[in-house]
């Protein structure tokens, strides 16, 4: 069984992130245990560690708990809405708290928004690659096409591409042994 965490990275009231993440989790093939990890429920303060986590892992209880959460998954799927041409500040904060835990981690990315989250995925790709995540981009979900405005997936939601992303992540996990 491959354990894959599906990250919800929006935290505002009225967000559609949990609905999008549920659809993603529902596409998990046999052999994948997909669990939703909602940043609204992860108690991380704004980054306040004395050193860069690359130089020295943060030691605050909140940082250690977050590190253990990320370490507990074989792979992740980050679902990212597009906020002003990028991903959310909450996600950046969660990324910046760790370093070693991200390096080599198989990470799939799913964007969503009016332009299918394309700009958010592009910015996140740059950050993920710089850190050294083993990134695979999945589909972008366009509001009004793949998702209703309340986040409900439509019949056009790309289930096949989502399955392909899970397969690619499992292959990466298996290749890492
Ligand atoms: C602060 C903010 C900025 C946004 N900027 C963009 C944007 O640049 N491009 C876009 O396509 N949609 C943008 N949107 C629309 C969101 O992508 C859309 O509302 C999506 O549902 C947000 O995800 P959430 O409901 O999980 O928070 C923005 C929404 C918010 C709240």
From TrEMBL:
GO terms for molecular function: FMN binding; oxidoreductase activity. It comes from the Bacteria. GO terms for cellular component: cytosol. InterPro entries: Flavoprotein-like_sf, FMN_Rdtase-like_dom, NAD(P)H-dep_reductase. Residues 3-129 form the NADPH-dependent FMN reductase-like domain. It holds the Pfam family FMN_red. This is NAD(P)H-dependent FMN reductase.
């Amino acid at each position: 069984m491959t354990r894959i965490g599906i990250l919800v990275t929006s935290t505002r009231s009225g967000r559609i992130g949990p609905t999008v993440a549920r659809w993603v989790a529902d596409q998990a093939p046999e052999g994948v245990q997909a669990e939703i990890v909602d940043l609204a429920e992860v108690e991380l303060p704004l980054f306040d560690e004395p050193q860069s986590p690359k130089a020295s892992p943060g030691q605050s209880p909140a940082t250690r708990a977050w590190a253990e959460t990320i370490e507990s998954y074989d792979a992740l799927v980050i679902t990212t809405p597009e906020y002003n041409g990028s991903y959310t500040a909450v996600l950046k904060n969660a990324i910046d708290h760790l370093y070693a835990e991200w390096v080599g981690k198989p990470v799939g990315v799913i964007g969503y928004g009016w332009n299918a989250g394309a700009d958010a995925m592009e910015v996140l790709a740059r950050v993920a690659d710089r850190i050294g995540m083993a990134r695979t981009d999945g589909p972008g979900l366009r509001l009004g096409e793949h998702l209703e405005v309340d986040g409900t997936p439509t019949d056009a939601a790309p289930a096949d591409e989502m399955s392909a992303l899970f397969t690619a992540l499992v292959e990466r996990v298996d290749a890492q042994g």
